[in-house]
Amino acid sequence: MLVLLLATRVFAYDFAWGFGGSAYQTEGAWNVGGKEPGVFDTWYHTNFPNAANADVTTDQYHRYKDDLKLLPTFGATLYRFSVSWPRVMKGCSGEVNPEGIAFYSDMIDEIIKNGAVPFLTMYHWDLPQACFEQYRGWASDQIIPDFVKYADALFTAFGDGRVNYWLTINEAESGCKFGFQQGRLAPGLKNDTYQATIDCVKRNHLIHGAVVNLARSKYDATRKGWKFGFPSNVEWNEGPDAVSAEKRNLAYAAWYHDPLVFGDFQQDTISAFIDNKENLDAAGRAPPSFTDTEKASMKGTVDFIAMNYYSTAGIPVSQEDVPSGAGCPAYCWQHVWGQGARKMANWYYKRYNMDIIVTELGYAGVNEADMTLDQVVNDPNRLKFWQSHATALAQALEEDQVPVKGMLMWSLLDNFEWGYYDQKFGAVHVVGLGTSGGTLERVVKNSTRWLADYYRQKKYKNPFAVGKLPSFDE
Ligand code: GBH
Asked: Mind listing the UniProt keywords for this protein, alphabetically (predicted)?
C-alpha cells in the first residue's frame, strides 16, 4: 500500500489534451484568398441554395489568432486542424496557391506561439470540386496520385519542424459512405451497394501508405520523428451478446487499422466482415484483397492509433451516463457511456500494442436552438459527458496501463455539423452561429472549465513538447 502511494506520487503518466476542428466546418471565407470551390461549396450553393451552409460558419479564417489564445487559458497543449485542399491547390492537383499556404503557415505559428503542438489533418472531406468533375473523386483510382501530390505540397510547406503530427484522412468510411455511396453529403454520389464504400476505403488505405512512404523517402520522416495517424470512426460495441459485439468491433476498428499495422486484414477481421449478420452494411461482402506490393506499402505506416470515439452501441439506456432519448431530436445518435471509451482504448492496445491518441471525443446533446445562452453554457448533460469520459480515460491510463497519450476534444468551437447548426460540439459556444447577423462572439462553456481543472489537478507529464521531437519511442 505504502509502495503504491509513493509510486503514484513520483510517477507521472504521459498525457496531454487539446482541441480539434476541421476546415469546412469552421473556416468560412469559402472564396477568399484564392480558394477554389470544394465539393461542399458546390453542393450547398447549387443543389441546396436554401439550406444552411458553411460560407461563414465560425469565421475562424479571420478569427484564428484570438481563438488560439484560448488554448493556454485551459492549459491545453494540442491543437488539431485540417487543411482545405481547395484552399492550397489550384484545380485538383495543379500549382499551390501561395495565399492558402501562407494562411496555414501563420496559423501553425500561432498554435505554437500559444504553447500547443499542431496536429495537421490533410483531408477532412472537403475535396476540390475540380477532382470531382475530372474523375468523380473518390470513385476513381486517379485520386491516388493527386492526393500524394497535395500531401507533398504540405510536407514542403509545413514539414520544417513545425508540424510533426500528420493525420492523413479523417474517417475514411464516413467520408466514403456519405459522399460517394449514400449521397447524403457532398458531392452526393449515389451507389446502390456498400461495395462502393468498401472500394473507396481501400483507396484511402493505399493513399495513406503512399503518403507515408513519400514522407520517409523524400523527407526523411523517420529521422525527423514525424508521426502518422489515420483517424478512425469507431464506437464501442458492448453486449448483449459478447461474440456479436466483438465481431462488430473487428468489422469496423480492425477494418481501418489491420492493413496499416500488419499490411493486411487478419483472418478474424475477414470473418467478422463477411458475416452479414454482424455487419449489415457489408452484407456478406469480403473486405478487399491487396497485392503483395500494396501490402508492403501499407504495413507499419501508422505510428499511433488515432481514435475518433463518440458512442457505445448495445447498452441499455438505463446504464448510459446521459440517457439518450428524452428531449433529444432524431439526430441525437450518441449513447453516452464513458466506460466505452476506456474499453475501446483497451481493445486497440491489446490488438495493436501501440500508443493511442484520441483524435476526436465530444458531445453535442440536445438542440441548443431551444436553449437560452445560460442553459447552453451550463448544460448539465455536457458536464456529465465530460466527467464520465475524462474519468474513464484516466482509468485506462492509470489503472489499465494503456498508453493513451492524448485527447483532442471535438471541437474547440461550435461549428457547422455538415448539414445543420443544431448539433453543437464546441468547448466554446459561438453566439448566433448560423444565423444572419450573429455576432459570433465566443463564450466558454462551463463543462470546459471543469475539464481544464480536472487535467490541471492530474499534473500529467506532457509527452508532446513544442519544438522537440515527439518522445513516444524513448
Ligand atoms: C465526426 O464524425 C467527424 O469527423 C466530424 O467532422 C464531426 O463534426 C463529428 O464527428 C461529430 O459528428 O445522424 O444518426 O445518421 C463522426 C461520425 C458519422 C457520427 C455520422 C454521426 C450520423 C449518425 N459521425 N453520424 S445519424
From this structure: Glycosidase, Hydrolase
Ligand 1 centroid from CA 82, angstroms: 16
Between the CA of 249 and the centroid of ligand 1 the distance, in Å, is 18
Which residue CA neighbors atom 12 of ligand 1 most closely?
Answer: 417
- The DSSP-derived string for 343-376 is HHHHHHHHHH---EEEEEE----S-GGGS-HHHH
| pLDDT tens digit sequence for 79-132 | 999 999 999 999 999 999 999 999 999 999 999 999 999 999 999 999 999 999
Ligand 1 atom nearest the C-alpha of 184 is 15
Burial of 148 (0-12, 13-18, 19+ CB in 10 A): middle
Task: Give 340-360 pLDDT, tens digit per residue.
Answer: 999 999 999 999 999 999 999
What confidence score (pLDDT) does residue 278 get?
Answer: 57
Distance 292 CA to ligand 1 centre (A): 34
Residue 8 lies in a domain: no
Is the pLDDT score of 330 beyond 80?
no
Query: Which residues form the catalytic set?
Result: 171, 360
Give domain status of residue 261, yes or no. Answer: yes
Question: Is the CB of 333 within 6 Å of ligand 1?
Answer: yes
Q: What is the pTM of this model?
A: 0.96
Write the CATH number for 373.
Answer: 3.20.20.80
* pLDDT of res. 25: 98
- 325 in a structural domain: no
The C-alpha cell of 437 is what?
447577423
- How far, in Å, CA of 259 to CA of 214, rounded? 18
Nearest CA to ligand 1 atom 20: 174
